Amino acid sequence: MLLLAGVVGLLVGMVGVGGVLLPPGLVTLGGMSPHAATATSTWAFVFTGVVGTLAYARRGVVPWPMLARLAVGLVPAAFLGARANALLPAPAVLLVLALLTLLVGLQQLVGSPHPGTSRGLGGGPLVAIGAGVGFTCALTGTGGPVLLVPVLLALGVAPVAAVAVSQAAQLPIVVPASVGYLQAGATDVPLGTLLGVLAGAGTVAGAFVAARMHPDRLRQVVALACTAAGAFLVVRTLAGLLG
To answer: What's the domain range around 37?
Structure first.
């Protein structure tokens, strides 16, 4: 689990897609229940959110106005997603997340949308995107970047900006979601803290690597990561539903 946390942090810091691996890893390697794994991984992503935000903010590449609009939807939806975790069929939601991630990854592999078209995104659409991302990621314990990066890429946001804003967007998701999980008593705080520290260190390394990659190469890595994570989630979710 400790090694997994470092790998997850590296992927989160570099391409934003990696948090999807932690909840199933806690179930498989740690023997945790799905609800406890979701809550604990959400707590761990508080640390990657802080580290990732600082790393990309120092580079001056975080689109703060976009983040502010996203946060209006992210915060309340993330709290509701955490409280709904025990009530809604998470596998079905996870399957939607998996298919979206997989399709966007494949789209990026065959041809990128035109970066810069996101300038047409107004406050309303960004608030709606934030609400959908916040609820889904809090419900499944996947942090935020794993869904937000594919959505922003599909809307034409440049890869560096998409990864950067997804780092900062982790906090409006995981902080209110963690409050909801803590109120429900589902979080293993000591384990989540240890995993979060290790994942945070990996995030620093991932941001360092991303800063030295050509934008086209970064887009290719994002595409491969989305495709791999989406395929992994599809197989895992279908296996859970059938088994």
So the answer is: 2-242
